[in-house]
Specification:
By secondary structure, the protein is α+β, with helices and mostly antiparallel strands. The protein has two domains: 3-158, Ribosomal Protein S5, domain 2; 166-284, 2-Layer Sandwich (Alpha-Beta Plaits), CATH 3.30.70.890. 33% of the residues lie in helices and 29% in strands. It is built from ten helices and eleven strands. It has helices at 68-79, 102-117, 124-131, 138-143, 178-184, 196-205, 208-213, 220-226, 229-239, 261-273, and strands at 3-21, 27-47, 52-56, 85-91, 146-151, 155-158, 166-171, 216-217, 244-247, 254-258, 279-284. Strand 1 (3-21) and strand 2 form a beta hairpin. The radius of gyration is 19 Å and the shape is globular. 45% of the residues are buried.
Length: 292
Amino acid sequence: MNELKLKAMAKINLGLDVLRRREDGYHELRMVMQSVFLYDRITLERTDSGGITVQTNLSYLPVGEDNLVYRAAKLLMDEYSVGDGLRIGLEKHIPVAAGLAGGSSDAAAVLVGVNRMFALGLSREELMARAVKIGADVPYCVMRGTALAEGIGERLTALPDAPDLHVVLAKPPVHVSTGFVYGNLQADALAFHPDIDAQIQAIRDGDARKMAERMGNVLETVTIPACPVIAEIKEQMMRAGALGAMMSGSGPTVFGLFDDEAKARDSYEELSRGDLARNVFLTRFFHNRKRG
């Protein structure tokens, strides 16, 4: 196999709880993760020149070892002493630093692609075990679909497919540092914790409304005071008829879940016309398995 094309799916957090700050400085998390049909395109090409090269459509992205796709390829190619070279084409569509795991998903796609291209024979579980060396979200991005993530995000339990819904994604024109968010989170003094177990049960029951009602992200206690536009976008989506609206990950992207396509499109168009968001997308959940 000399060329391979892959899609790296974005993710949202349907629920995000922080249980405590650990002694190692990381936070103990409990999250419900969901892939959505917003993706970066990745092309892998085998070369005779040796080494790894990265080309991207965004001039400000690094193309060396600071890029997660480079590190993902190098991880497997070094372990298996792959002598051929690899050219990675990265076409970004997922906004950068948005709380949508774009970089992690790109790295996961490259792990999957390198395994296939060079016939390394690794199972999905074996790829996920290596993926955590690159980042906490990367194992989930190898798995994709609907999942419970625990620990720092690396302990994963696959869940039944979440009910199909329309999703509006809106990234405001602000930057939120993940370090700033977790550094300012009062993990031991949170007044609210989302009911992750109840949300999982709603997913198992196929109840979209109850699933949305159980949404919650404790990181909003830091981001909304710092970036009030996040709350404004949530309010717009709820006025438009969303079942629920919430910030994804550490932000700043907000997503709204709709069971009515016309209402979702109205929200998308209103946000696209306004100045609350720089990037707006209308999409759906992505599932690993075909329904019916």
